[in-house]
Structures are given as C-alpha cells and as structure tokens.
Write a structure and sequence with these properties.
Elements: H1 14-41, H2 53-61
Length: 94
C-alpha cells in the first residue's frame, strides 16, 4: 500500500492566512451561537430580557469600580461614517 506523507511546511500568502483566520473566527462564533441555542432549547440556560441597559451594566459590573469620569467611562458606540464617494459602498445603482 502506498502511504501519502503530509508536507512538513506549507507556504501561504498573508492574504490567504488572513482569510483562513477570519473564516475560523466566523466558525467559532457560529459554534458558540449554536451551543447557546442548544442550551436554551434543552433548558440548560434561560433567556432573560434586558429592559434597562444601564441597570444591567451596573449589575454585571457588580463589585467592580464604576466609571465616574468621562475619561474612564465605557466607550460609546460611534455613528457610522458616511461612505466615501470613491467607495463601492457609495454606489446606489443610479
């Protein structure tokens, strides 16, 4: 029987490596999501609706120091920047 040996070294471009890592991260995220859905479906986890985000944050931070000054506050989400005119995202199909 003929045995196939695996190569000792494989050379790929940085672009290929980045694409592989991005795909791996996506698959890991999918696995985490599916596990959470399974845990909910089987009763291992319960769904809790968050009505007050600030109260939830205080509850989660618990004993940890609460941010008091703007420089130590949690970052706020920034609004998305408008697409540049030369960006493919700026094309509306007119």
């Amino acid at each position: 029987m003929h045995e196939i040996k695996a190569p000792e070294t494989i050379l790929i471009s940085q672009l290929q490596w980045d694409a592989l890592m991005e795909r791996l991260e996506e698959l890991e995220d999918s696995l985490i999501t599916l596990q959470a859905e399974l845990d909910i479906a089987t009763g291992k986890s319960q769904v809790v609706t968050i009505h007050d985000a600030d109260e939830f944050l205080r509850e989660m931070l618990g004993e940890y120091e609460q941010p008091t000054s703007p420089s130590r506050a949690l970052p706020q989400a920034k609004p998305p920047r408008p697409a540049r005119r030369d960006s493919p995202l700026s094309h509306r199909g007119d």
